[in-house]
Design goal:
The protein is mainly alpha-helical. Among the domains are: 78-196, no CATH class; 228-312 and 321-382, no CATH class. It is 55% helix and 4% strand. The protein contains ten helices and four strands, in the order αααααββαααββαα. The strands form two sheets. Strands 1-2 form a two-stranded antiparallel sheet. It has a two-stranded antiparallel ribbon with strand order 3-4. Strand 3 and strand 4 (247-249) form a beta hairpin.
Length: 388
């Protein structure tokens, strides 16, 4: 059979596709990075809100701390503060010698316990392993062999070197007894130290209470705690779940300042150089009626926020009453009814997004849509008559 003639313009040998492959590779790499960005940020706009919140609230706290320090200095000038500070110093001086002796005893007991523990825990772990093998053995000869091995091991001496350089040998029973005795001794010494420091602790508590009561805002130490909490915050969805009404409210994922103990205004949340508050500054303000937030506790992976306004119950005229029902149409008894989550949202935060202080392009639109849908489902469930 004759060979087929080779074409004059063979596309495989006469043309290079390197440029095509290069362009396709670049497009694929760009698409990969875009997909990663979209997954992490593009579809989660609340992350940008929370990062902006961290920057602006941290700057606000720095300013608030300066004012708090000035206010604290004014409080320290008061004669009553001087008397309380003198009481703290006197209690500290009176208990200094006893506290020093108690701490030395406690440190010595802790060091001795650590020396015994380092040997005892290893031997106890080995005994536990042998005991497990004994209990899981099926033949009598194997059980007898393991029991003899445990007995021999417990009888062996172990050397413990104490902090003062002395060495002692203990078998297993003696080692366990010594460990328990030193542990109990350390517990007793800790209680004794607490009793010695009780007058100092009580005097400091009175001084701190006086400062807190006479400060205009939070103390510098409290503001430092807020600064640490803010710097440690990782972006996460903050939501309130009302299972009975089938409502999930995620407003506080963007309205981050709602539960903060300091009064936050749009002007205080403005970034440098701005002439008027933007959508971020408007979203980060304090809740206009903080007392009703005590009925709605958000859940998130972050630590719970400190709320000073929640300590006292709201006035009777402003207490909420629940009007929700279960999804099955059965009404919740009056004593167990919970307040409606939507009643806790002020007018400027109300759903749908058109009435929210944020623009529709912000996360409010996303969260409002889901909350609106669940609210409609809940309303339908509450109005449906149960079957007879």
């Amino acid at each position: 059979m004759p060979d087929k003639p080779t074409p004059e313009q063979d596309p495989i040998t006469s043309k290079s596709y390197a440029a095509h492959y290069m362009i396709a590779t670049i497009i694929l790499v760009i698409t990969l990075f875009w997909a990663l960005w979209d997954e992490a940020w593009g579809q989660r706009p609340w992350k940008a809100f929370q990062e902006t919140w961290k920057d602006r609230y941290s700057a606000f706290l720095n300013t608030a701390r300066s004012k708090s320090q000035a206010s604290e200095k004014d409080v320290e000038k008061d004669s009553q503060y001087a008397d309380l500070a003198a009481a703290v110093k006197k209690a500290s001086d009176d208990s200094a010698a006893a506290a020093k002796a108690a701490r030395e005893k406690l440190d010595d007991a802790s060091a001795r316990l650590l020396a015994v523990q380092s040997v005892f825990t290893d031997r106890r772990a080995y005994v536990n392993a042998l005991t497990y093998e004994l209990e899981t053995s099926e033949s009598e000869s194997s059980k007898k062999s393991k029991a003899a091995e445990i007995k021999d091991y417990k009888g062996k001496k172990a050397t413990v070197e104490f902090p003062d350089g002395t060495k002692k040998e203990f078998d297993f029973e003696e080692l366990e007894k010594t460990y328990n005795e030193i542990r109990d001794e350390r517990t007793k010494l800790s209680l004794e130290l607490g009793d010695v420091l009780k007058p100092v602790t009580a005097a400091k508590a009175k001084l701190d209470e006086y400062v807190s009561d006479h400060m205009v805002d939070l103390t510098p130490a409290q503001i430092d705690g807020l600064r640490k909490k803010t710097s440690d915050w990782d972006p996460t969805i903050v939501q309130i779940n009302v299972a009975e009404a089938n409502i999930v409210d995620r407003c506080e994922s963007c309205h981050m300042g709602a539960r903060e103990p300091l009064k936050i205004t749009p002007a205080s949340m403005m970034s440098k150089g701005e002439k008027k508050p933007d959508e971020y500054a408007t979203a980060f303000v304090s809740h206009p009626e903080p007392e009703i937030l005590r009925f709605t506790i958000p859940t998130s992976s972050a630590a719970p926020r400190v709320t000073r306004a929640m300590d006292a119950p709201p006035p009777a005229s402003r207490r909420l009453t629940a009007t929700t029902s279960t999804g099955s149409g059965r009404s919740i008894p009056k004593k167990t009814r919970r307040p409606d989550a939507r009643a806790a949202i002020p007018a400027t935060w109300s759903l749908p997004a058109a009435t929210c202080s944020l623009k529709p392009s912000t996360p409010a639109k996303i969260f409002s849509a889901s909350a609106d849908a669940t609210a409609a489902t809940a309303t339908k469930a509450t109005t449906k008559s149960p079957k007879t």
